[in-house]
Amino acid sequence: MLHTIISRLVQGVAVVFCLLLITFVLVRLMPGDPFSGEKAHSEHIIQKNKERFHLDKSYAEQFAVYLGYLARGDMGDSPVKEQPVSKIIKHSFPASLILGIAGITIAILIGIPAGILSALRKNSYIDYGTMVVAMAGISIPSFVVAPLLAGQVATRVPFLKIAGWGDPFDWILPSITLGIGTAAYLARITRGGMLEVLNQDYIRTAHAKGVHPLVVVTKHAIRGGIIPAIAYVGPAFAALITGSFIIETIFQVPGMGQHFVNATKDRDYFLLQGVVILFGTLIVFANLAADIALVMLNPRLRA
Amino acid sequence: MSSPTQNTATLKGHSLWSDAWIRLKKNRMAMVSLGILFVIGTLCFIIPIFSFIPDPNNQNLGNTFQAPAGNHLLGTDQSGRDLLARLLYGGQISLLVGIVATTVSVIIGLSYGAIAGYAGGKTDSVMMRIVDILYGLPFLVLVILFSLLISEHAKDLTDSMIHRWPDHEVVIKKIINLVPLFVAIGALGWLTMARVARAQVISLKKQEFVEAAVSLGLSHRKILLRHIMPNMLGPIIVYATLTVPGFVLTEATLSFLGLGVESPNSSWGILLSEGANYMETHPRLLIIPSVVFSLTLFALNFLGDGLRDALDPKAAKD
């Protein structure tokens, strides 16, 4: 087990490194640079700035310098915002994290029970209804749900605001919007997993021995049936955090998403690299957590 | 056993496709979806050919936010453009991006996965490890970076093509504008397809008819193209159908962020993002495109599911 974790971590470092390298090169291949934005400076100052951020050197040298910074725990400064990247991330990450946790919690609380119910009542109207709703949840994108919720719900409910991130009430609409799609996928995956388990012999044996049907489901079926859903939750959590920038834009949440999009537009190389490293690391850990959970749930994987 | 003469019906034989069609016809949701897609596709691609509807880019600032009426069936938007026309022309672009990007991803994923699966051994494990690494990368992040990069080169291409064929400026601009999206989405979205293709090839290459082809001394290329690939069509079609809605959504997301389709083109994503700005005053501008857009994705997803149940019954788990 420990061996698996360590090898997965090493692999994870490689993934993050690849992602960083790809981002590093792509963002520099794009025309323009951090200083060619709206604030037009004289040639002399731009040259000075480029030297300060080592942008006058070759890509390889720039990358080496950047890795040197990283080794010292420094993500460099944002040339556009003129602040340390670590400070920008420190200020914006909590909002993204809260949004992600709330979103995945909503997804789990809705998706998994819906999937289990659907599987237990296979081919009934409950099943069809749940699956049609789930398909709708997958097909209706968050940037449709978000303005509808903001325009139709937030204007009618007194303690909800159309946009903003002040008190915990403001967390409600963005996290619902974020969680719906994942809830829909989870419901479908859970249903599939449960159906497979419910057809197995040991479930029939348990029923034949006269175990209460509720106990058969809660003690025997769920343990196996939920495995595909758990495998999905890890990556989905990472995807919620890294993919929440649309919702952050619509509900004006001061999270990392805005920085990601703006840094790309402004050619803010160092901020983008910092965000990408964080996103990549999150994905690696989410996948690892899912794998560990799977091994704990499924004894056959413990070799 | 009955004699063959009594059993003329079975003599006709059931191909994979006729069996699949029979199964698909039984799936009511899939058939409804097929109908919806047919209607939406016809409306988007056929109606604009005839000049029933106004030019989608025709602005009329004296007639903004007009409610639906005889001359503008769905009303007009914030610049006085006809919403129906924009919806249909936008649909062309959205569906085109979805279909072309899917084609690109199928070509890349199919070749990559088939080669990895057929070669096996070290080649296979190296190729699939690369796919594993790419899987770890955030898709949308890379699509944004990649499409921005290509779009700069596409601008040069547009200029040189307009220089050569000045008469076709509008068409050239329209098509080249979309190329970055086709390429970026397709070139980064082939990973699932590669895994599906590889799994198929691995299970097929152990079967007798492939062994027969090998013993006949056919070349690898011929075995792969003539004997293995045709047997993979079912699952490939299924996953391609399920890929289209994902890519339509990706395009809409990018356009919503202002990083996708550019004018003079329009797409459903652009209509949605513009509509979201007038949500409180004119909800019609958001709700109509939302319904059409979601209905299309809904139908594509259900059709894909139905096709999977029909063509690939073993994979139909969830």
Descriptive notes:
The complex is a heterodimer of chains A (303) and B (318). In chain A, 74% of the residues lie in helices and 1% in strands. Chain A contains 13 helices and 2 strands; from the N terminus they run αααββαααααααααα. Chain A has a two-stranded antiparallel ribbon with strand order 1-2. In chain A, helix 6 crosses helix 7, helix 7 packs antiparallel against helix 10 and helix 11 packs across helix 12. The longest helix of chain A has 36 residues. The model of chain A has no long low-confidence stretch (mean pLDDT 85). Chain B has a domain of 167 residues. The radius of gyration of chain B is 23 Å and the shape is globular. Chains A and B meet through helix 1, helix 5, helix 6, helix 7 and helix 10 of A and helix 6, helix 10, helix 11 and helix 12 of B.
In short:
The complex is a heterodimer of chains A (303) and B (318). Chain A is an all-alpha fold. Helix content of chain A is 74%, strand content 1%.
